[in-house]
Amino acid sequence: MPQNTHTADPNARGRAAQSNRPGRFERFDRDRVDDGWEIAEDLPSVRTEVSLETPCKIITRNTSPDISFDRSINPYRGCEHGCIYCFARPTHAYLGMSPGLDFETQLIARPNAPDLLAKELRAKSYVPKVIAIGTNTDPYQPIEKEHRIMRRCLEVLRDFNHPVGIVTKGTLIERDIDILGGMGQRGLVRVGISVTTLDPKISRAMEPRVPHPKRRLKTIQRLTDAGCPVRIMTSPVVPGLTDHEIEAILQAGADAGAIAASWIMLRLPREVAPLFIEWLAAAFPDRAARVMARVRETHGGQNYDPNWGQRMTGQGKYAQLIAHRFALQCKRLGLASKLPDLRCDLFAPPPRRGDQLSLF
Fold first, then answer.
1. What is the model's pTM?
2. Which of 23, 58, 78, 208 could form a disulfide with 107 if both were Cys (CB 3.0 to 4.6 A apart)?
């Protein structure tokens, strides 16, 4: 079992979380302490471990009024990209694991997801609408290279002519351009590529296992060249750390071929807040107080305000200024606020062996 510790782990190189704080459902905690011996412990590095899960269903529904989709797929739980600001970290608490280092290292793959997807799409009661993938954890995180679950889900969606919206930071998505290009040309797919900062030092500290910002911009170009529409996502905007880059990020995205753009204010739900504050003090001690002051200013004096309608954009004059700057730059660059609607009228389950063929 993973150990829960509040102490910074010197062996967690290449990880954003500084500790393994327990989830909100845990009764007990473990903490590493100095016992007085001056013998350096030769502890192994924190490595990624992948477990397999066999869910009964794969399409998840939601009714959130400020989210643009009502269904999604998550091929993986946890995310090796390890972005310290990730709002999905608290979901690991439901598994009895820490939203800290466990979220980045104790991952769960769902290898039967493509088969379940095909089964659910064939249900007579199913009505097609856009399926979102990557809205919780990244489907193109490093372990996808081995497990190929996202690839197989895309093959199912292609075969069914089903619309899909993808959000990722992973350049591994280029592997699937052979599928995405054709689907994009038929109006069946749209992709959002997240570029939080153009500064490689900030990116490496804040999102340690995410590809270089310039490399993600290259991915935008390759997807658009193949006929897949892409939006550049300046998400999240971190007040006092990355907010000054909004115009530059949008310019870089437009130059790479993005035709739309979106943004989300940094939000720190549940266990994310103490993890982010802990990371900020270690990575940027000179800016920590200023950053958190701005964060609280945009969330009504709190680390996070979960109210619908303002949790994504924040509130107050500072949040309004960010929104105004973003909108003005998008207007200058001709970037739309969203990508074109996808087609649902092409949906058709492919025939299986033994099915009776239609007479018409």
1. 0.91
2. 78
